Amino acid sequence: MTTMTRTPFRFGDAQFEWGKDVFDLQDSSPLVQSGDFDSLRARLEDEGFLFIRGFHPRALAEKAEAWVLEAIRQRGGLKEDGTISDKNETFAFFRDTAISHAPEILAMTNGQHTFSFYEQFLGGDVLTFDKRWLRAMAQGGNNGFHYDKVYVGRGTPNKFTMWSAISDIPLERGPLVMALGSHRDERLKATYGATDVDRDGADPVFSTDPREIVDYFGFKLATAHFEPGDVLIFPMLSMHSSAPNLSDHYRISIDTRYQLASEETDPRFFGENGTWQGNFADKSMKITPIAELKKQWGL
User: Fold this and answer.
1) How far is Cα 185 from Cα 181, in angstroms, rounded to an integer?
2) Which among 150, 160, 136, 149 has a CA at the least distance from the CA of 242?
3) Using CA atoms, how far apart are residues 243 and 175, in angstroms rounded to an integer?
4) Which end of the chain has fewer CB atoms surrounding its CB within 10 Å, N or C?
5) HEC profile for 67-118?
6) Residue 266 carries which DSSP code?
7) Contacts of 195 (CB under 8 A, 6+ apart)
8) What do you get for the CA distance between the two ends of the chain, in Å?
9) Among candidates 154, 126, 159, which has minimal Cα distance to 44?
């Protein structure tokens, strides 16, 4: 993993020093280009993620970005110059299938290049969740540190998230951030990682404080300037977050998930035309705060 001398990485109110607390993601695209899937699987096991530049053809990502920006424009979310409007509204098109399942989006997430990769990587026919987490993050918006397993962990454990950059995402626009080594932390995996938000009513966000992740839990961080078409692929038990968007442009990305078609699915995320249940279907369920759970777990 390489590092470069540069100004500190700003993560909300916190700042981290390159080469000490935060590192550059190692690019695995040469392994993809050479078809070395054994090395890709080994790197995923070792590092807990695969960062692949140019996984999606840039032209496809740019078409998807134009599609999403037009949808935002029609909803009053853009100024004439293409920057975020004064409403500063984050758009989550999860259930808006007219947007998230449009041909411009599916050309990336369901394209032949994507399915061919996963068929070789997993060794068989694959499928992807019907729910697609398409987001346009406004200024200040971000996601807290979490394992995906607490949201989408039913069915086979052998499933993988692919986070795809649709827009250009420099550091100030809120890139995805990996907590290095979190996929090997047996204490976290056995406590927080064993929860299911819809079964247990456990707060699914482990931390909103990057300093806690670095200073208390001892993880280093890794991120990059993502360009349209770059992806991060990781298993259900790799902790990650996104830094706040500090810019006046939308950060557009999509999360999709893939598994072998022969293995058990999580039924909450499959169904035609957005009829899947998703998370938080039981509106009466009380969510236990993560601070209380950490005390119970001795964390």
Assistant:
1) 7
2) 136
3) 6
4) N
5) HHHHHHHHCCCECCCCCECCCCCCEECCCCHHHHCCHHHHHHHCCHHHHHHH
6) -
7) 150, 202, 204, 293
8) 29
9) 159
**Quick one: pLDDT at residue 5?**
55
Helix and strand tally (H, E) in the chain? 11, 13
Instruction: Identify which of 145, 149, 170, 179 has the alpha carbon closest to the alpha carbon of residue 161.
Output: 149
Question: How far from 270 is each of 46, 93, 102, CA to CA, in Å?
Answer: 31, 16, 17
Cα within 13 Å of Cα(147), Cβ side: 27
Give mean pLDDT in consecutive 10-residue pieces for the chain, a chain of 299 residues: 69 93 97 98 98 98 98 97 97 95 98 98 97 96 96 97 98 97 97 97 97 97 98 98 97 98 97 90 94 97
